[in-house]
Amino acid sequence: MTAPLLTLESGDRLTREEFEDRYGRSPHIKKAELINGVVFVASPIRVRNHAQPHSNILGWLFHYSIEFSAFMVCDNATVRLDHQNEVQPDVLLRLEASAGGQSRISADDYIEGAPELVIEIATSSAAYDLHDKKDLYCRFGVKEYLVWVVSEQAFYWYHREQGSYVQQQPDREGVLRSQEFTGLWLNLPALLQGNMKSVMITLQQGLASPECQRFAEALKRQSQ
To answer: Model pTM?
Structure first.
């Protein structure tokens, strides 16, 4: 008798090993995550509410990362946190282990451990990105967590302080500045208006700042 095909559906309660096995047998599923032992399967991706914003924020973070050899930016990479939690962030930034980073690349080519920074594109303020996943990322030590709720023109930037997330506020010009990654500046009004040229100009100002130059030199020494 042929064994029944084990599908992967939202709400399934699985171990990480069971989750990975079923995910591998489901090529039609492009994104699924395991959070506290419960499966979440993503809906089809819309263009203006997800795909384009995803590309914009990925480009912003990538342009920051190329100035530092110790950084790695990943798009939709699988991250193993423990045996009950395996996530697939929209975008992440990790520091290489040789430079003091808290995650590593496993022998089978997955990230194990929490990246330093994670970005998610959420469908609404009720999405699990701002609730279950936010709590999960904080618990596992993601230092900065950014959530862009495109349909509501809302952007949340959290910094982990003493085991809890504190929401960062933009300055008078609407610029958000990373607490962990010096020079990572985000022109929030420009981002929400889709003005990526202004977003990149602000980022270049952050990268050119004296404090960012000192940060780059310190990272270089740490990686040697």
So the answer is: 0.92
